[in-house]
């Protein structure tokens, strides 16, 4: 059990070799520096065909990780303005800045999200974008409390309860995931907290 202060958790996340966990607006996240994403795959016993999400504090921090035309960036920015911060993950063409470890089976795409939780964004503002996923063993339901996470993943740094003065409003429903197609359309990969419908 490794309960730490907010400052210690941020320092551990910045160090790159430590997986941390913090609450988000959906379910608690496991997080690590993008170049160390394989640590999460090992921890969760996760299949390489299930990519991680890059979570950031602002759209500006995430756009360097994608590549597209000026017109595409305008469409993506409009979607971001409408739903971020929030429970929507945009799967977009990845730039060279995305480590292959984030999405081993298809390194050409990357999922991006900004959580609607002030504490999450405060952490991400200090650490920079992190590779994230729900806190659970692969194929099992997401863990919903820090206590459950500590039992399942005793080596992961979690926040000391005293640091959680205000818990984020938690939907307990994963984010909706949509993928951009080069023909200018979106595919819904997972209906989650935000209900979307495309023609």
UniProtKB/TrEMBL annotation:
Coiled coil: none annotated. InterPro entries: DHBP_synth_RibB-like_a/b_dom, Sua5-like_dom, TC-AMP_synthase_SUA5. It comes from the Bacteria. The keyword ATP-binding applies. It is an enzyme of class 2 (transferase). One of its GO terms (biological process) is tRNA processing. Pfam families: Sua5_yciO_yrdC. The keyword ATP-binding applies. It is found in: Cytoplasm. One of its GO terms (cellular component) is cytoplasm. GO terms for molecular function: ATP binding; double-stranded RNA binding; L-threonylcarbamoyladenylate synthase; tRNA binding. Its EC number is 2.7.7.87. Residues 3-194 form the YrdC-like domain. It catalyses: L-threonine + hydrogencarbonate + ATP = L-threonylcarbamoyladenylate + diphosphate + H2O. Signal peptide: none annotated. Keywords: ATP-binding, Cytoplasm, Nucleotide-binding, Nucleotidyltransferase, Transferase, tRNA processing. Its main location: cytoplasm. Belongs to the SUA5 family. This is L-threonylcarbamoyladenylate synthase. It comes from Lyngbya aestuarii BL J.
């Amino acid at each position: 059990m490794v309960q730490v202060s907010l400052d210690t958790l941020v320092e551990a996340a910045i160090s790159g070799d430590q997986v941390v966990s913090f609450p988000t607006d959906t379910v608690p996240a496991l997080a690590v520096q993008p170049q160390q994403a394989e640590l999460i795959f090992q921890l969760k016993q996760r299949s390489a065909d299930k990519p991680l999400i890059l979570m950031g504090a602002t759209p500006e921090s995430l756009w360097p990780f994608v590549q597209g035309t000026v017109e595409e960036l305008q469409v993506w920015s409009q979607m971001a303005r409408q739903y971020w911060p929030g429970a929507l993950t945009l799967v977009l063409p990845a730039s060279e800045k995305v480590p292959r470890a984030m999405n081993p089976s298809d390194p050409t795409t990357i999922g991006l999200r900004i959580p609607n939780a002030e504490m999450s964004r405060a952490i991400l503002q200090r650490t920079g974008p992190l590779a994230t996923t729900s806190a659970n063993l692969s194929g099992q339901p997401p863990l919903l409390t820090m206590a459950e996470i500590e039992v399942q993943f005793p080596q992961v740094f979690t926040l000391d309860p005293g640091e959680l003065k205000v818990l984020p409003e938690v939907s307990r429903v994963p984010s909706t995931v949509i993928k951009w197609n080069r023909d200018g359309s979106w595919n819904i990969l997972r209906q989650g907290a935000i209900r979307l419908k495309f023609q």
